[in-house]
Amino acid sequence: MKRKPTLLHKALPKLLYIVSAIALWQALIMIFKVKEFVVPSPISVFQSLFSKELVAENTWWVHIRTTLVEIAVSFSLTALVGFFLALFISWSKLLRGIFMPVIAVLNSLPKIALAPLFLIWLGYGFTANVTIAIIVAFFPVVLNTIAGLNSVDEDLLDLIRYLNASKLQIFLKIRIPNSLPYIFSGLKVSATMTVVGVIVGEFVASSQGLGFLIKDSQAMMNTPPMFAALFLISAMGLGLFALIDFLERALMPWNTEKTGSAT
Amino acid sequence: MQDERKPLLSLKNVKKTYTTGGGELKALGDVTFDIFPKEFVSIVGPSGCGKTTLLKIIAGLLPKSSGEIIIDKEDFDISREVGFVFQKPLLLHWRKVIDNVLLPIEILKKDRKAMEERARYLLALVGLEGFEDRYPGELSGGMQQRVSIARALVHDPKLLLMDEPFGALDAITRERLNIELLRIWQETGKTILFVTHGINEAVFLSDRVIVLSARPSRMIESLDIELPRPRQQEVRVQPEFGAYALEIYKSLEIG
Ligand SMILES: Nc1ncnc2c1ncn2[C@@H]1O[C@H](COP(=O)(O)OP(=O)(O)OP(=O)(O)O)[C@@H](O)[C@H]1O
Ligand SMILES: [Mg+2]
Hints:
The structure holds two protein chains of two kinds.
Chain A: H1 7-32, H2 42-50, H3 60-90, H4 93-108, H5 115-122, H6 126-150, H7 154-161, H8 167-205, H9 210-219, H10 223-251, H11 256-259
Helix pairs in contact in A: 2-10, 3-6, 3-8, 3-9, 5-6, 5-8, 6-8, 8-9, 8-10, 9-10
Chain B: E1 9-20, E2 23-35, E3 40-44, H1 51-58, E4 66-71, H2 78-81, E5 82-85, H3 97-101, H4 103-107, H5 112-125, H6 141-153, E6 159-163, H7 171-188, E7 191-195, H8 199-205, E8 208-212, E9 217-224, H9 239-254
Parallel strand pairs in B: 2-9, 3-7, 3-8, 5-6, 6-7
Antiparallel strand pairs in B: 1-2, 1-4, 8-9
The complex binds adenosine-5'-triphosphate and magnesium ion.
């Protein structure tokens, strides 16, 4: 038995890596005297986070909260709607025959390009943002869940069919648990896409949030808050990813030996 | 003697033809036999003659093409009274061993709580005490197959259908499980229909061995094995044992 690595043990290399990257960044800026509106130094990026001036007409906290809530709401809806839609479509051959082509066609659309349309249909703000993020993100969950529900070994179904299992039982006892790994890999892809969708939504149809802040600061060539916003966004993305990873381990304890670290 | 009792299950002229893209395939030519309560019957036959097909038809997993399967109707509901041990263990890898064993209970909507005791007893019976909370991935092939036997017994079926359950195991494990199976059979009073490729295994276990011909299969022999019970490994070296095996071997050659 190996000793379990402590949290510090695991985090230390990553921390070192980040610190040296930031140091290198600062050094390069100072050596080459890069202008701040091109690439700001890490110090000014950090300072911009704490400046008392309003960024894009609001405090940092308002933007952060807006983006966080939008990500949380659109990802939860993506996961829920995606899962149940996949369940519905997988319920029978007939439903699959009707809906799979529709899904395939919709999935082939450049979804981000639809964002301006949703601005027209839903107006500025939260609803349009969340809708855009869902449209962008939800196909991986749907398609992966459908694949998982249908990738069951026929013999495994015989195992309970001879006991006259109902269709609901076949789904609950076999198809759904069998599809969990597929669902989680779909969720991970969707998580990244949700963040993209939310930010694009804020570019197009919002006056709040980190996406809006980036666009607004860009108009004034104010790069430090843009960089700060970028880091905050990727931290949110990583956080969401970590949350899914945690749920995956918690919900699939039989899998922990095999999967190891997913990041 | 046996024939005066009422059969648990009668197959009369059961036929099965598969229709595939490539045309028709006659798997079961014409199969007729009875199984009596508490009997241990083995089916041997060449590969591809339809043994798995036959078990699946009995279990209601496949439709037959023609013929009749008569079951002792009064108190024999086939979906509640059959336990099926498949050739592969087919454990659900996301369920702990005990939850795998309890799967039929959940499907049949019986009281899970009340049956947990029984599941533990059955796991002990197949020699897996202490493994209740492991996941199937942590067990060896032979242990997995024993879990699947416990699972097939958990809803207390009258009839056990076993499809080459020990086929994939090494000889030592297989012979040990044979002894265990006989013990379980004697302790629980089940009727067992056992498919195997092993002639010796069939003789060792059975009251009666049914020999099927190659496709389209017919029954070419039904041989009563009158070796004394309980049987231990020593039975295998008795001259009668060899004589029975030889007879089965010969009818397989002819058929
Ligand atoms: N679903 C199916 N569709 C078409 N043909 C099938 C199907 N299942 C089995 N068969 C064919 O029916 C025949 C009997 O198959 P079965 O699996 O019952 O044989 P078996 O006696 O169990 O063989 P083995 O001893 O190798 O397990 C084989 O020739 C097989 O190719
Ligand atoms: Mg077979």
